[in-house]
Amino acid sequence: MPAILPVSADLNERACFCQTCLSKTLAEKLTVLIANTPHDELLTLAGRYRTPPNQQAVLQEYLDYSKENGLTVFSAWYHLKRGSCCGNGCRHCPYPS
């Protein structure tokens, strides 16, 4: 898992840190971060996690995409890591129109 954001658990609650639960928790935190952070700062942050052109991207469910009715829906975080808008009108496109 990429070390994108700190994840803390309330010590009075039992927290699961399996890959699925951790991905869901990070995705929730990323949604808040994306909504409250200037676009330039988000691009800088996401750029650190961009896959080099000569490598195949390893995508994490819930962080980079989710499955809806059998279809893959890319997240805003995925699009930010991509580095630019593809122009396809994606549902979670974080780029200004």
Structural class: mainly alpha
Uncertain parts: none
> Largest beta sheet: what is the strand line-up?
1-2
Task: Tell me the distance between the termini.
Answer: 31 Å
- Helix tally equals 3
- The SSE order reads HHEEH
Beta-strand percentage range: 5-15%
Please report the total strand number as a whole number: 2
Largest sheet: 2 strands, antiparallel
User: What gross morphology would you assign?
Assistant: globular
Rounded to an integer in angstroms, the radius of gyration calculated over CA atoms is: 14 Å
Helix content: 25-40%
Describe the overall structure:
Helices cover 35% and strands 8% of the residues. A hairpin with a 2-residue loop joins strand 1 and strand 2. The N and C termini lie far apart (31 Å). With 97 residues, it is mostly helical. The chain has a two-stranded antiparallel ribbon. Helix 2 packs across helix 3. The protein has a domain of 59 residues. The model has no long low-confidence stretch (mean pLDDT 86). It is globular. This is DUF5522 domain-containing protein. It holds the Pfam family DUF5522. It comes from Agarivorans aestuarii.
